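I am writing to request your help with a piece of structural work I have in hand. The matter concerns a single protein, recorded as an amino acid sequence and a row of backbone structure tokens. Could you please explain, in whatever detail you think fit, how the structure tokens follow from the sequence? Thank you for your consideration; the sequence and its tokens are set out here:
>
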Amino acid sequence: MAEPPVYETALGASSLDKITLLGQDLAQDVMGKVGFGELAFWLATQRRPAPGETRVFEAVLAALADHGFTPTAIVTRLTYLSAPDSIQGALAAGLLGGGSRFLGVTEDCGRFLHGVLTEAGRTGELPADDAGWDALALETVRTRRAAGEFVPGLGHHVHKQGDPRTPRLLEIAAEEGLVGPHLALFSAIGRVHPQVLGKTLPLNGAGVCGAALADLGLPLELLRGFALLARTAGLIGQLAEELRHPVANDVFLAVDLNNRPVAPDPYSPEQP
């Protein structure tokens, strides 16, 4: 008889009287001893973070948890209004809205910066001072502008004079000695882009979070996942507030009672 297949994992495993997680006894070595942020980092990397890494990581989670009545929050509240028996549906609806305009910028910025750094590393050493980073940033912004593309993480629809999360996260990373090449390049983009664009745009919080996560060595493919992890806590808060002070029905009625019929606008494919 053939031996049954074996599926190896370093994550959670259970026996009759014990649960292990990351090689630790869950009940004795993790519960009550390891914070959730530290554990989330540990699960993703399978290495226990240093205290400074945990501080930066948890600062990122706090920065991305909730931004008020964003589309993700609104759709969570409206889905709960429609299906109050499905908390999971309401949370999932909000998380599914984490894309290129909201939350997804964290991943987009991290990947973008990493790509620039990888290319720069192929042709020589990375900069060693602010002047070198400024030169690389200037070349990067010029290249993006010439291609008609935006720089991920640059600009914010509300915080036009500066996103308050950005300097604080940079400060925390500096305090912990964790300002790596991604944050260095991102900061330099903030300094030099007016020379190319002719205006000053803020470095937004989602972008700086992506740079910080990339400097922590977290998988680029999972950066949006960490943003969604943070936003899950915020959406739970949105639902908790909806239970006490509901607004979803007012939002629904504001649209439902104020719509008006118009003539059909037939679709026509664009002509070359």
Remarks:
- The first helix runs from residue 26 to 30.
- The chain has a mean pLDDT of 92.
- The chain is about 60% helix and 5% strand.
